Amino acid sequence: MSSTEKTGLSRRSVLCGVLVALAVPGGLAACSSGSTPSGTGTTGGGTTAAGGTTPAGPPIIAALADVPDGGGLIAGNPADSRPLVLVRTGETVKAYDATCPHQGTAVSPPQNGVITCPNHGSTFNAADGAVTKGPATTGLKEVPVKVEAGQVVPA
Question: Which of 142, 72, 74 is nearest to 106 (CA)?
Fold first, then answer.
């Protein structure tokens, strides 16, 4: 390698280090060819905000604190593009595919233990997803989830 090539390589390495240091504090390891120094990476068990992912764990659907106790919310499904309706009772969360089995409209979050499809008025029991009023003829499909470190994640 010529001295001109070495100088160009050295300048790129320095520039990379400066840019990474400005953009990602503690991220200088991204420009090195060695391993990541200890003390960098995740903190607090690797959790992130709702809808994110943990570097060492499953994708996060929602924070438990964001799901109203005795109610629920609509959240993204990290496994596919279909939304989930989350239903919380205490520390337990159940999830159902939020797509109404009648014509595919997204259902509304549960209110008073009932999940309703705004399109044609089908209703579902929030405790088990069973259809309680048509025109839907089948219930909502349960999606396995669990609560881990205050986050709702796929089971």
Answer: 74
Name the CA dihedral angle for 128, 73, 79, 57, rounded to a multiple of 10 degrees.
-100
* Cα 7–Cα 11–Cα 14 angle in degrees, nearest 5: 140
Gap between the Cα atoms of 17 and 37, Å rounded: 15
Task: Give CA separation, 46 vs 28, 99, 150, in Å.
Answer: 20, 31, 12
Tokens standing for residue 114:
């009932």
Task: Say how many residues make up the chain.
Answer: 155
State how beta strands 62-63 and 114-116 pair: unpaired
**Coil, helix or strand for 153?**
strand
pLDDT tens-digit map of 32-42: 333 333 333 32
CB atoms within 10 A of CB 91: 9
Q: What is the pTM of this model?
A: 0.64
User: Is the distance from CB of 35 to CB of 139 less than 8 angstroms?
Assistant: no
SS3 call for 13: helix
User: What pLDDT score was predicted for residue 38?
Assistant: 34
Tens of pLDDT along 33-81? 333 333 333 222 222 234 554 456 789 999 999 999 999 999 998 888 8
149 by Cβ neighbours in 10 Å (0-12 / 13-18 / 19+) ranks as middle
